[in-house]
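User: Batch of two.

Assistant: Item 1 of 2:
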Amino acid sequence: MNMPDASLLIADVQRFCLRDGPGIRTVVFLQGCGLHCWWCHNPQMRPASSGDAREVETGALADELMRDERYWRRSGGGVTLSGGEPLCQAGGCAALLAELKKREIHRCVETAGAVPWDAFEKLVSLVDLWFFDMKSADADRFREGAGGDLEQVRTNLRELTGRVPDRVTIRVPLINGFNADADGLEALGRQVAELAPRSAVQILPGHDLHVDSGRKAAVSREECEDARKILAAHAPNVEVCW
């Protein structure tokens, strides 16, 4: 995506969110993602452009977001960048985050990690908390299910946790028929322990909303609890986020 660094192409802004970082948060969903996960919850945000997305200058967007400041201040919240994949627009994200940092607003970024490290380099000093997806420890499975290069994701996570080890939370989307099996979860747990040994883990249960491939992504509470137990053997803190 070739956007000027002073602007962002955004798909949506959601307010009063409680699962995208500490406190009450405002989440900015950015357009564009290089992966093609068949269970994607926001498939309309995958294309690099969309008639429903709007281009916004980063300073104007910061002013728009500040309308929620009183809720952030009272709850310890802030702004979260999600998508899509925010790091597909790393230059614009850096400009927005720098402006929010000047205003002393807490800043989170959600990423699947499947971008060149240069994108992370632009943001790493500007982010208070990273949510980093780990979908699988199997490169072939990851390529087939998500369309990405797992080695790139691993390399980025290793570098990121080397830089800011206490600012990374791992998120595992638990998907039926993809990564909910015991062997796959055991391998994923070992991978997390190797690459992000100090990171907490959040399990995000899959659901069938927007899934139109004929497959079923949803998992049961029992499967989520089994996954939690397996991953808890490798991570300091694991929770299921319903």
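Item 2 of 2:
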Amino acid sequence: MELSALLASTIVLPSIPKVIALLLSELDRDQPDLSKVTQCISTDPALTTRLLQTANAPAFNLSGKVNSVTEAVAILGLSHIRSMVAEAATAASLRGVRGINLQQFWAYSLNVAKLARSFAGLTRQNQGAAFTCGLIHAIGELVMHVGMPEEVESLDKSIGPLDLKRAKAEYYRFGYCYAQVSAGYARQWLFPQPMVDALEHQYAPFENNVYEPLAGVIHLAAWRARAKKANLSERALAVSFPAEVGEVLDLDIDMVLQQDPFDWSGAS
């Protein structure tokens, strides 16, 4: 499938059932705790994209300015949040995506978000934007699996969706990868341009005409998460480390690896 056709398709992305349940419970209170609502939404890639899409819509006159869930919740208010969560709840039957272990995907995405925020802090980048980009950076992978399942099925058999070499394999097979799909939707949803650039060029940060440091942050965070999942040896880590990206951000392999340990069971 051509990239333009995929981006033109209407695809409902699945949310995390546990997050939906927690949000419905909190929003049913007389005085919902906005911090809890924000925290819950910030763990769910699909809800995060919907929220930022709404907050950046022309109706709010803030297109391209809302970077994070915290900002979006403050702008939209509880009535919009309730409507969005109710809509997500009605689509809760969409629990499976062919070829994707959703529990693993959600955990991976949240870990990339946390790492991206940490790296952004070290490099004086926008931490809210980094967390958001990290959380939704691979949303294109879900879109590809939902929108073109037969075409990605054979690729899944030889290289998994979260493999370090997945983006390269997708480029070879389709002429684009999940990064361009994620960026394509972010562009349609009027996300801030630095976030769109970061998503689009996360796989190859130096291919952009104007280097976007946030792309490098996401690149390193995704490498760290995928390398951890692959349980690479010290030698394999050293060989695969994207040193050129790290050098520009002034982050060496020791700094990247010395982040907090992952909790792969944390999102379910």
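The chain has two domains: 3-90, 102-257.
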